[in-house]
């Protein structure tokens, strides 16, 4: 399976701008720029997209973990907060992806919840490629 996206950029790093398009069409010439990345201008940025991807990947992995264990989740909601910081070696680097999960799963006890959520965090394909600290805070309702 191969998934594709295209970035198109015009101009310099600080003053230029670009757009992102995915083959699925979910993103279609979605604007991004220095201002959408480092300020609050509308548009997206690579870290936001990584956060969305990590939250989605982890949540789907947990849904499969729960299903295999015989649980039917009522709701799973995950926020991923990706940190971009200055790199002492130069430039910037992603240093952390902090996952915050709220789950409502009838019949699931806390110990099994901890086990399955931990398995999902480690087993999610994006967790396996993110070269940064990954944390998981979870609440079972």
UniProtKB/TrEMBL annotation:
<feature type="region of interest" description="Disordered">
    <location>
        <begin position="1"/>
        <end position="26"/>
    </location>
</feature>
<dbReference type="InterPro" id="IPR003718">
    <property type="entry name" value="OsmC/Ohr_fam"/>
</dbReference>
<dbReference type="InterPro" id="IPR036102">
    <property type="entry name" value="OsmC/Ohrsf"/>
</dbReference>
<dbReference type="Pfam" id="PF02566">
    <property type="entry name" value="OsmC"/>
</dbReference>
<dbReference type="InterPro" id="IPR019904">
    <property type="entry name" value="Peroxiredoxin_OsmC"/>
</dbReference>
<dbReference type="GO" id="GO:0006979">
    <property type="term" value="P:response to oxidative stress"/>
</dbReference>
<protein>
    <submittedName>
        <fullName>OsmC family peroxiredoxin</fullName>
    </submittedName>
</protein>
<dbReference type="InterPro" id="IPR015946">
    <property type="entry name" value="KH_dom-like_a/b"/>
</dbReference>
<dbReference type="GO" id="GO:0004601">
    <property type="term" value="F:peroxidase activity"/>
</dbReference>
<dbReference type="InterPro" id="IPR052707">
    <property type="entry name" value="OsmC_Ohr_Peroxiredoxin"/>
</dbReference>
């Amino acid at each position: 399976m191969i998934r594709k996206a295209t970035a198109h950029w015009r101009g310099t790093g600080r003053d230029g701008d670009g757009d992102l398009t995915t083959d699925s069409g979910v993103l279609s010439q979605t604007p991004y720029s220095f201002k959408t990345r480092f300020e609050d201008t509308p548009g997206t940025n690579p870290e936001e997209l990584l956060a969305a991807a990590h939250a989605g990947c982890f949540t789907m992995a947990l849904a499969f973990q729960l299903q295999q264990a015989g649980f039917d989740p009522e709701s799973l909601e995950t926020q991923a907060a990706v940190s971009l910081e200055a790199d002492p070696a130069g430039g910037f680097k992603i240093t952390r992806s902090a996952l915050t999960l709220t789950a409502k799963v009838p019949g699931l006890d806390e110990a099994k919840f901890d086990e399955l959520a931990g398995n999902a965090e480690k087993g999610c394909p994006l967790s396996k490629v993110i070269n940064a600290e990954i944390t998981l805070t979870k609440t079972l309702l």
